[in-house]
Amino acid sequence: MNIQNIGSLANMLVATGFEKSIGQRLLQRICFKPADFVLTERLVKGNDVLTCSVFFERKSEEYSCNYYDAAFLKAMELPDLSFHGIHIRELDKRMGDIDWALINKAGMVLNLNDESTWQREKQIEKIVSDLLRLSVVEEGRYYADSLKVKYWTAIVAVNENLNTIRSKFEVSQRFYFFDGQGISIEEAYRFLLNRWLEKKLHSRKKNTGADNATEEAGTGDKSLLQKKRKRRTQKITK
């Protein structure tokens, strides 16, 4: 195992803005000598979330890291509404209190007589049931899917196609390393935030244009109808 190689990669990533613990995570993965692998880091930026996926590949006895993908998820504005007895903001709070990482906790053994060993799973089951109830109506389904995107993005075990709803809140970009240097996480965050603002502005202009077109079409139809009525009146008079 090439410790110098691992140290060099760790230093490059820490300088880019990743946590110092990424060196230990690298060591834990490289000791298995995979052909390639990905490390994911989830960073909270205020109410927003930046998820970075760093890609590694092995060449002979050394590993290289040429790029990382950053996905910016904008904080969602959830309304003070209820559907089928499920209050959206209250459900959001309950989902925010859950540790969604699917990992085995050291020393934790399932004991059917000790609810504390399966309390989290019991809470998750209740949340999933409430999400299903919320999804019964179309508007409720939109908010249920929004909450899934907010909390389940990094959970591989949850196999749901949420790309459509995710595209409303998320923008992503690939950033490359060159000669051991690359765009910092903070710079990537500012870049993606600006892209999201541009996307939102473009969407707003598009919707405004569609509304104006509809209004103009309605005005045109009304004008045509008035002309037809006028012609009919003239014929009757004659």
Low-confidence stretches: none
Mean pLDDT: 84
Derived structural class: alpha+beta
Give the strand content.
15-25%
Helix and strand topology:
Layout: H1 3-16, H2 22-30, E1 36-45, E2 48-59, E3 62-73, E4 82-83, E5 86-87, H3 88-96, H4 119-134, H5 138-152, H6 163-166, E6 170-178, E7 181-182, H7 185-237
Antiparallel strand pairs: 1-2, 2-3, 3-6, 4-5, 6-7
Helix pairs in contact: 1-2, 3-5, 4-5
Summarize the structure.
By secondary structure, the chain is an alpha+beta fold. The protein has helices at residues 3-16, 22-30, 88-96, 119-134, 138-152, 163-166, 185-237; strands spanning 36-45, 48-59, 62-73, 82-83, 86-87, 170-178, 181-182. Strand 1 and strand 2 form a beta hairpin.
Structure description:
The protein has 238 residues and is α+β, with helices and mostly antiparallel strands. The chain is built from seven helices and seven strands. It has helices at residues 3-16, 22-30, 88-96, 119-134, 138-152, 163-166, 185-237, and strands at 36-45, 48-59, 62-73, 82-83, 86-87, 170-178, 181-182. The strands form two sheets. A five-stranded antiparallel sheet has the order 1-2-3-6-7. A two-stranded antiparallel sheet has the order 4-5. α3 runs parallel beside α5. The radius of gyration is 26 Å and the shape is flat. The mean pLDDT is 84.
